[in-house]
């Protein structure tokens, strides 16, 4: 069952695809005080989010909402404090706009980086597919779009 997960304060609000409230998950269950950057809900009831760290890079981890068990992604993917995630579970891909490190990443769902793009990126904040193999990336510093 696909779920929507929204961070607010010290909790995650979990809703069904139809918007029905399912659960309120305290962040302390997942070993974090705040969601930094982005998070992504997966179809198995887990979420991807950044490990607790005030500054600098930190590993992405996969957390089971039911048990609170969290494990860093096996591939060791690390992100800064501001980033956006886009998950394609069918293709087994994770796209990351790593804003403070001025880069775009394509990784597998275990966090192994398959491709990195930094040319022309200055604080990328979101990615939108426009056609097979192409993305539009918003660039906060240049107030524009970059075609990758």
Average pLDDT works out at 82
CATH class: Mainly Beta
Shape: globular
N→C terminal distance: 32 Å
- The proportion of residues forming helix, as a percent range, comes to under 10%
Radius of gyration: 15 Å
| Low-confidence spans | none
- The number of distinct helices, counting runs of at least 4 residues, comes to 0
| CATH architecture classification | 6 Propeller
Count of the separate structural domains: 1
For this structure, the CATH topology is: Neuraminidase
Largest sheet: 5 strands, antiparallel
Query: What pattern of helices and strands is seen along the backbone?
Result: EEEEEEEEEEEEEEE
- How many strands? 15
CATH superfamily (homologous) name: TolB, C-terminal domain
Structural class, by secondary structure, is mainly beta
Quote the beta fraction. over 45%
Write the layout of secondary structure elements.
Layout lengths: L2 E6 L2 E6 L4 E6 L13 E2 L4 E5 L7 E7 L5 E3 L5 E2 L3 E6 L4 E6 L4 E6 L4 E5 L6 E8 L2 E6 L4 E4 L1
Antiparallel strand pairs: 1-2, 2-3, 4-5, 5-6, 6-7, 6-8, 9-10, 10-11, 11-12, 13-14, 14-15
What would a concise description of this structure say?
The chain has 148 residues and is mainly β. The protein is 0% helix and 53% strand.
